[in-house]
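User: Earlier you gave me the apo prediction for this protein. Now I'd like the version with zinc ion bound, so I can compare the two side by side. Same sequence as before, with the ligand SMILES added.
Assistant: Got it. Here's the input I'm using:
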Amino acid sequence: MNSLDRLISYFENFPGIGARQARRFAFHILTLPPEEAAELSSLVGGIQSSVTECSSCRRFFAKNASGSDTCEICADSSRDRSKLLVVERDTDIRSIERSGVYDGLYFVLGGTVPLLESRENKKLRGGGFKRIVETRLSEGLREVILGFSVNPDGENTGRFVESIIKEIPSADGIKVSHLGRGLSTGSELEYADPETLKNALQNRY
Ligand SMILES: [Zn+2]
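And here is the structure of the complex with zinc ion:
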C-alpha cells in the first residue's frame, strides 16, 4: 500500500468516518501548506505523551507543569462534590461544559452497554466507577446523574450504572437521576446544542 492509501485507511478507521470522507481528509492534507502539514504531523505524533487520562474522572487532559494526575475540573474546589454525572465518552463533557449549567463532577464510563450484545465491553470502566463512587461518598456525594444518549443502549447503560451503585452498601442514600426530556429520542449527547443540554440538566428527574 502506498503512503496515500495508508493515510486514507487510517482515517477510515476513525469513528463515524466513511471511505469517502477518509479520502477527502487525505486529499485535503495534500493541499495544505507544507508547514501546516508538518505541524499536524507533529501534533499527532506528540499527543499521546502531552495528554493524559485523569485518575479520577478518566477524561483526557493536557499535562501541566505540576504533574498532577487529576484534571482541572476534578481539582477545582469550587465544583459541587455532591453531584457526579456519568457520561459515555470524553467529548460529552465538552458539550456539557459548554452549556455552562453544570457545576458538579464527572465520570467517563468509556462506552455503552448495548441492549442486544451479550459480550462484555472491555473498555467499560464499571470497576473504576464503583471505586470513584466509594471515594466520593466520603466527600459528600449525594446524586449520580445518568448522562447517556436517549436510545435503548443509553437506557441499558443507565441500568448497568444503577446496578453498580446498588452493589455499594454505603451508597444506599444516593439519588440516581436521569436527564430531563428535551433531548430528542435517539439523539447523541455529544451533538446536542448547549440550550438543549441546559434544559435536560435543569429538568432532570
Ligand atoms: Zn478529572
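For your comparison, keep in mind: The pocket of zinc ion is lined by residues 54, 56-57, 59, 70-71, 73-74 (CB under 6 Å).
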